[in-house]
Amino acid sequence: MRATIIHGPGDIKVEDRDYPTIKLPTDAVVKVTASCVCGSDLWPYRGIGKNRGARAIGHEFVGVVEEIGAEVTDLAVGDFVIAPFVDSCGKCPQCLNGVTVACDHLTSWGGDDENGHYVEGAQGEAVRVPQADGTLRRVDGVTDPDQALTANLLTLSDVMSTGHHAAVSAQVGPGRTVVVVGDGAVGLCGVLAAKRLGAERIIAMSRHEDRQTLAREFGATDIVAERGDAGVEKVKELLGGVLADSVLECVGTKESMEQALASTRPGGNLGFVGVPAGGAELPIGLLFSKNITVGGGMAPAHTYIPELLADVLAGKINPGRVFDVEMPLEDAAEAYKAMDERRAIKVLLKP
Amino acid sequence: MRATIIHGPGDIKVEDRDYPTIKLPTDAVVKVTASCVCGSDLWPYRGIGKNRGARAIGHEFVGVVEEIGAEVTDLAVGDFVIAPFVDSCGKCPQCLNGVTVACDHLTSWGGDDENGHYVEGAQGEAVRVPQADGTLRRVDGVTDPDQALTANLLTLSDVMSTGHHAAVSAQVGPGRTVVVVGDGAVGLCGVLAAKRLGAERIIAMSRHEDRQTLAREFGATDIVAERGDAGVEKVKELLGGVLADSVLECVGTKESMEQALASTRPGGNLGFVGVPAGGAELPIGLLFSKNITVGGGMAPAHTYIPELLADVLAGKINPGRVFDVEMPLEDAAEAYKAMDERRAIKVLLKP
């Protein structure tokens, strides 16, 4: 089968690999019908962080169950499934607490599982899913979704669940004022999540016209293009002299975290989901004196999928709109390039 | 009148000062009937932080209104009042949000107010209270409280409100498991607050027998004397292999923050109220990967006093038990010494 391999910074190739097979009785093999490139895939692509050598990449996919191990009980061949961006067992205390991303038996796509068996990356034709019952979410009543529904379902794998996590962590709710820092797919999904949770006012910080348009479509009431102190002043002006109740940090850099902290009112809540990179810090003295509560981290997509899926299937939310470009899997290298150069918000890859 | 002055590290003197008078129409003058020494007063006493020169000290008191300015409407001469540990206006957006400690017109005891007028410290015979309507909390039906009630009311000025803030910030509630790091007066009040909020299990980390006894009286179900990794292991063992849902950090040092972070389960909540001193940090990578939410800071005592006062007056809580020593104001130097040497948990000073 064909699979996307990152060899090093800027070096993405689609290559031949063995088709996955069941290794453990708790495995399933899923034929990928859609995958995509994540903003966090751009970190290794740009050479940020440790170079882990050539490896399969991609952690977001939807598809159809092709084969199941003898101990898989909640899935059947032919089921259409959403894979969260990490594997989880569903049985440990962390999973039972809903914090599947801290699962005691956590496995990442494109790495090895606990037993040392290779796990395929999501940007390929098929994947062996360890702990399949604990990991996958079945989409009942769906077998062959059209392009729009496929895109919507695929966002639940990561970006929509992550935007939702930012909003939940920032205590977004009815009557709350919200600032979203970051206009990538996650930030845009954060806007949509804030709207869905009943926020009164949603300010999207964005300097790109196409993203501003989508932010407004998703529920942003205001756009702030300014950054730094000027951005904070603009937020304050829009909110009648006070900063925001809830701020969603959806980037992960030093600058975006500073922007987010400076936009939060005393006693407000900051939800951060941007993978920390480039010196982002949480200054304890500032949090102490301003009584800012900070929460977030990796989103427990597995936990959030049921409620978000219900709204997708009911036609209430269309997070799939973040995919502005679709390409065949073979063009993965170009997909990375388009996202790196900000020519695309998020690229959907069709195997 | 007599007032406590800190001249530098270890140098506490009780001296003569002018009796306060009304300076602004929004002022009140309060005759102090009880004050006390705070754990945070020990920072300058120990020479930690900036030496601000000779100044009046103390920020917790209760007393009787002796005089009011022409614009004071919510208080009358003879009212018994509790003073939160900072002054606040009650009208700015932060006060209206309940975050009185971030008041736009914040004033500290023992400093100057916005108009440059001196404000007395709490460890003295009387205090001019700026923004009196916004700052003070009247205790209806009480004019001359006995020793036990005085002690209870005095804790609402700071330590009980602060312990409550730690518990609220750590999302303590029915069914939650709790670890309290710090066995000073604030930590002990944190135990009481956790009990009051319905926690299922409350583990107090303490190595001092007198404090362990009071922690149990306040509702601690378990005591852990070990620290560091051994302490974390003990917590895990007591909680059946999982760390705590809610952790209250009530010290403010690097070690106590590390202990608190290491005691919080993935997806748990850490409430921190210890004034950060000595390199306490919030490591963003750990919070991200463990999905730990951190909140807290200076407690908005003014906001919390009504609900806590109701429970004090109803005899439901007795936070005043943290005062294990009472001394005349004249012995303030000895009071500091006793607390510094941990011979006292908290000393009440009677002018």
List the helices and strands and how they pair.
The structure is a homodimer of 351-residue chains.
Chain A: E1 2-8, E2 11-16, E3 28-36, H1 42-45, E4 55-56, E5 61-68, E6 80-83, E7 86-87, H2 93-96, E8 107-108, E9 126-129, H3 132-135, E10 137-138, H4 147-156, H5 159-169, E11 177-181, H6 185-196, E12 201-205, H7 209-218, E13 222-224, H8 228-238, E14 244-249, H9 254-263, E15 264-272, H10 284-290, E16 293-296, H11 301-313, E17 325-328, H12 332-340, E18 347-350
Parallel strand pairs in A: 11-12, 11-14, 12-13, 14-15, 15-16, 17-18
Antiparallel strand pairs in A: 1-2, 1-4, 3-5, 3-9, 3-18, 5-6, 6-10, 7-8
Protein name (chains A, B): Zinc-dependent alcohol dehydrogenase family protein
Family (chains A, B): Belongs to the zinc-containing alcohol dehydrogenase family.
Domain Alcohol dehydrogenase-like N-terminal (chains A, B): 25-132
Report on this structure.
- The structure is a homodimer of 351-residue chains.
- Chain A contains twelve helices and 18 strands.
- In chain A, helix 8 (228-238) runs parallel beside helix 9.
- In chain A, strand 17 (325-328), helix 12 (332-340) and strand 18 form a beta-alpha-beta unit.
- In chain A, the strands form four sheets. In chain A, strands 3, 5, 6, 9, 10, 17 and 18 form a seven-stranded mixed beta sheet that branches. In chain A, strands 13-12-11-14-15-16 form a six-stranded parallel beta sheet, with helices on both faces. In chain A, strands 2-1-4 form a three-stranded antiparallel beta sheet, with helices on one face.
- The model of chain A has no long low-confidence stretch (mean pLDDT 96).
- The first copy, chain A, folds into two domains: 2-158 and 300-350, Quinone Oxidoreductase, Chain A, domain 1; 160-296, Rossmann fold (3-Layer(aba) Sandwich), CATH 3.40.50.
- Chain A has helices at residues 42-45, 93-96, 132-135, 147-156, 159-169, 185-196, 209-218, 228-238, 254-263, 284-290, 301-313, 332-340; strands spanning 2-8, 11-16, 28-36, 55-56, 61-68, 80-83, 86-87, 107-108, 126-129, 137-138, 177-181, 201-205, 222-224, 244-249, 264-272, 293-296, 325-328, 347-350.
- With 351 residues, chain A is α/β, with parallel strands linked by helices.
- At the A-B interface, strand 15, helix 10 and strand 16 of A face strand 15, helix 10 and strand 16 of B.
